[in-house]
Amino acid sequence: MRKRAGRTQVWLAQRCNISQTKLSNIETGRVTPGLVDVELILGALDAPPELLAEVTALARLANTEWQGKRASWRRGLEKRQAELAGLEGEASALRYFLPAMVTGLLATPEYIRASLSNSPVGTTKTVARKLERQAVLYESTKHFTFLLTEQAVRWAVVPPVAMAVQMDRLASISHLPNVRIGVIPTGTVVGRGPMNTFTVYDQRLATVETFTGRIVFQDARDIAEHLEVFRMYERHALFGDEVRALLGRWAADCRA
User: Fold this and answer.
1) How many Å is the Cα radius of gyration of the chain?
2) Residue limits of the HTH cro/C1-type domain (predicted)?
3) Domain extents for the chain?
């Protein structure tokens, strides 16, 4: 389209406020354009609306990755833990929305083992890797926000006494200065239902969990939308002393 319009790379790069190197890499397929890139380039070239819609859809697909659980099982679940550790190591602001269960970063060993009980492959190494990953919570340069629903906190993954210990751990971790743990109690009026577990790493990547795998979003608009949803839920959550009081009551219920 650029060549048909008789435009140079320099002209188009300046119109789109991107570097000529990036534009060249997009044209030669070395770099996958994001949605904003597509809109800027096709807008500058006066592309028809139907072409803009088609290429925008392709760009969104190109920036979305599916990772199936069966592939993780074949490779070994501990390798997935190494990948997660890498993501956590690179990010400085990490946000976790947990509507169904407690994440491994916050879980006790017994809870982790129980949560992996449906795996068809050995989990001993995976449990060890999950526990090793928890050390990242103590890195003061990183900031974590965990949002859980009451169901996620109270879902009986392990017997009642072990659930009480798990709740105690949540309360304990909430005292870390770089960790915020919020809980949305059942009965809180929230207009949008908690569809999926998801994690946002800084503003560059979001992952969404399903029963059969996970979706990885790298497009800026998908990430921005997940951040917007996260902030909406965050406004309805209890934090600090309020959430610790709730956790204490629920733990007492389990022990009773």
Assistant:
1) 22
2) 1-52
3) 9-62, 65-255
Angle formed by the axes of helices 124-133 and 77-90, nearest 10°: 10
Q: Beta 93-98 vs 198-201: how paired, if at all?
A: antiparallel
Biggest CA pair distance of the chain: 78
Return the CATH number of 65-255, one of 3.30.870.10, 3.30.43.10, 3.90.180.10, 3.30.230.10: 3.30.870.10
Assigned token pair, 150: 């009451």
The verdict on pTM exceeding 0.90 is no
Residue in the block written with tokens 């602001």: 93
CA 16, CA 37: separation in Å to the nearest integer?
Answer: 8
Give the mean pLDDT per block of 10 residues along the chain (256 residues): 93 92 93 85 92 88 82 77 88 97 96 90 87 96 98 97 98 98 97 93 93 90 95 98 98 97
